[in-house]
């Protein structure tokens, strides 16, 4: 684990450094993809900001109200201390989805089209983000004696963060491979929902870190993954498709 980088007298959070780099890389890639499709740059930038803000708020709120509600009830100002960590990616997915949907409705934009443009970038961002989790030591796995086990939190454990990174990189590459063959807007996003949910459920199985109360013995992350995966599957088989605009 390398939670902090010491640079002279400064202490830099490895987690936030990697997350910041992920946001920059994926934003630049998204804008490049928009430019390739001759999309309006201002709209693309606005969409990026809406997605980032919605994702940030959603990720924080799920942590606060599900994973550590009692702590934040006693220390409400700690909700604003975001530099101490405390974000849940699936909450970010829901927050971004809602925020971008509202943005598209208000600006008469096609949500499913924009979702397809953005989703490879989001997939890459998630993969990089799990590297941040690995360096920070959060989201750790169960004890194990496998050859690739890592020393973390008092013993040899599954590197669940790297499992997620490897899986998501594969998902990202698959999305890019099938993208030229996709003709119906929303298909790429729906495929990602299914594949990401599958990878997340597998990751949740191996995790051993505190994740808030369980529902029927199953983590909220697993429940949300199953819901998103089902939504993606139903979208693929039931939602009327619309031909791409560009």
Commentary on this structure:
By secondary structure, this protein is mainly alpha-helical. The chain has one domain. The protein is built from 8 helices and 4 strands, in the order ββαααααββααα. The strands form 2 sheets. A two-stranded antiparallel ribbon has the order 1-2. It has a two-stranded antiparallel sheet with strand order 3-4. A hairpin with a 2-residue loop joins β1 (4-7) and β2. α5 (111-136) packs parallel to α7. It is globular, with a radius of gyration of 19 Å. Mean pLDDT is 92; it is low at 242-246.
Descriptive labels:
disordered C terminus; mainly alpha; two-stranded antiparallel sheet; 8 helices; 246 residues; 64% helix
Average pLDDT across residues? 92
Number of strands: 4
Q: What portion of residues belong to β-strands? A: under 5%
Rounded to the nearest angstrom, the radius of gyration is 19 Å
Query: Structural class, judged by helices and strands?
Result: mainly alpha
Count the helices. How many? 8
Query: Shape, please?
Result: globular
* Whole-number count of domains: 1
Helix proportion: 55-70%
Element order, helices and strands? EEHHHHHEEHHH
**What low-confidence regions span 5 or more consecutive residues with pLDDT below 50?**
242-246
Quick structural summary:
The protein has one domain (4-238). 64% of the residues lie in helices and 5% in strands.
């Amino acid at each position: 684990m390398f939670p902090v980088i010491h640079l002279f007298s400064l202490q830099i959070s490895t987690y936030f450094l990697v997350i910041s780099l992920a946001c920059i890389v994926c934003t630049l890639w998204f804008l490049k993809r928009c430019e390739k499709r001759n999309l309006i740059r201002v709209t693309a930038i606005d969409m990026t900001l809406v997605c980032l803000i919605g994702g940030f708020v959603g990720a924080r709120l799920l942590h606060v109200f599900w994973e550590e509600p009692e702590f934040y009830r006693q220390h409400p100002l700690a909700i604003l201390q975001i530099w101490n960590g405390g974000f849940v990616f699936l909450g970010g997915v829901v927050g971004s989805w809602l925020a971008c949907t509202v943005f598209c409705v208000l600006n008469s934009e096609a949500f499913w089209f924009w979702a397809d443009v953005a989703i490879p970038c989001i997939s890459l961002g998630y993969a990089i983000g799990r590297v941040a989790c690995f360096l920070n030591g959060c989201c750790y796995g169960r004890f194990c004696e496998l050859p690739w086990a890592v020393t973390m939190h008092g013993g040899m454990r599954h590197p669940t963060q790297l499992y997620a990174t490897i899986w998501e990189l594969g998902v990202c590459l698959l999305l890019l491979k099938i993208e030229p063959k996709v003709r119906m807007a929303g298909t790429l996003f729906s495929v990602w929902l299914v594949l990401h949910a599958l990878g997340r459920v597998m990751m949740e199985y191996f995790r051993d870190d505190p994740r808030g109360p369980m529902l029927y013995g199953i983590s909220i992350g697993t429940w949300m993954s199953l819901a998103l995966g089902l939504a993606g599957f139903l979208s693929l088989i039931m939602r009327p498709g619309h031909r791409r605009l560009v």
